[in-house]
Here is the input.
Amino acid sequence: MQFRPVKGMNDILPGDIERWQRLESVFRSTVELHGYSEVRTPILEALELFVRSTGETSEIVEKQMFELERSGERLALRPEGTPGSARAFIGGSVHAREPVTRWYYIGPMFRAENPQRGRYRQFHQAGCEVYGDAGPIADAEMIDMLVGLLRALGVSSFDVRVNSLGGPQSRARYRNVLQDYLRPHANELSEHAQKRLLDNPLRILDSKNPRDIEAVKGAPSILEVLEPEDLAHFQGLRAALDALGTPYTIDPGLVRGLDYYTRTLFEFTSSAGKLGSQNALLGGGRYDGMLAELGGPQLPAIGYAMGLERMLLAMDDSALPQVQRCFVAPVGERAAHQGLVLARELRAREITVDLDGRGGSLRSLLRRADARGARFCLVIGDSELERGVVQVKDLRAHTQIELAPSAVASHIAVALTQDEAAG
Ligand code: HAM
Here is the structure.
C-alpha cells in the first residue's frame, strides 16, 4: 500500500522549495522595512474563535472548517490567520505597551474546498495585521507596500480593486437598501442567495452563480449610502493612493467573503496565464470591530493575506538566483578525511558544498557532480594524496588545475566572487 498526501494537500520538494524561499524572503524583507514584526500562533484554535470572528454566515465557517474534538474541546485547524493573531494580540495585552502594532505571519491554512489549480485544502498565506491605527493613511500605505512587493517579485500584470463597506451604520442601511432592491427578484436568485437575502444580503454581490450576477446588475452601490464619516474615510484613502501614484480601481461590488470587514476593502487579482479562475492573489481590509468583539480593547485594525501558491503561479522567475555549488569527491578513507576538512573550509567561506564519500570511478563522480548542478568538482584519490594536491575541475569552463589543499578554498572563493561581479 502506498500512502499519498491527503486530498488537496501537497508536498513541497527541493527543486520547488527555492521559489518558496525566495518569495518568503522578499516578503519578509519588504514588510520588515515597513516596521512589521513576525508573530507565530498555533495552527489549532478553539472552533468558537472563528465562529465569532470570521463569521457564522461566512462560507469558511459554514462549510470549510476542518474540525476536531478532543477531551470535550471543539477545535479547528485555522482557515485564516487573522483571528488567531487578534486573539494573541488581546491575550498578550500588547496594546498596553505599543500605540500601534504591526505584525506579520507566514504559514499554512486549512479550508475544505474542492481542490483545483490555485485552490487547495492546505495552502499558505503570508499576511500582515496592523492594530491601533484607524487610517486611511495606514490603509493606503499597506496597499502601496503590496504593489511594491508584487513588482519586486516580478508579478507583471495585476489589478488592485478597492471598496468601502462603511461602518456598522452604513452597512445596516445598505443591507436594507439591497434587500428592498432584491426582494422583488427573489425568485430569480439561486437557492443559496435566497437564503442569504435574509441573513447576509451583501454576500449575494459576491456570488459566482450567473442567476445572481444577473439579478444584482442594477443594484444600488454601497458607496451611495455611506455615512458621511465613512465616505470621508474612503475619500481619504483615495487621496492618499492618488498622492502615491498607486494604481487602483474602485469596485463597489467587492464585498469579500469574511464577515468582519468594515470600511476599506481591497483585493489584488492577476491575469497571469497559469492562475486560471483562482485569480485572487491577496485580499484584505479593515476590521475595526473584531478586537472588541473578541473581548479585547476597542481598537481599529486592518490587514491582508496573500496566497503563496497563487503568487508562485503568477511570479516571473528570471530573478531566481542560482546556488553556486561545490562537489567534493574523495576516494578512500584518507582522502575522505581531507575532503571533510576541505568541505568545512569552503563552508566557512559561505560556499555550498556537497560531500560525496561513496567513491567510484572518476566518470561516475563527475556525473554525480553534474547531476547536482555543481560549478566545481574537487577530486582527491590515491594519486592526488601521494602528490599532496587536489584536482579542481571547473565544470562550467571545462578546465582543471591541481592545487595544494590549503590553497583550494581561497581559489574557489575568488572564482565565485568574479562570477558574481560579472553578473
Ligand atoms: P482571504 O481572501 O480568505 O482572506 O484569503 C486571502 C488569500 O489567500 C486569497 O486571496 C488567496 O490568494 C489565498 N487563498 C484563500 N483560500 C485559498 C485556497 N483554498 N487555496 C489557495 N489559496 C487560497 C483572508 O484569509 C483574510 N485573513 C485576509 C485578511 C487579513 N483580512 C484582514 N487581515
In short: The first strand starts at residue 37 and ends at 38.
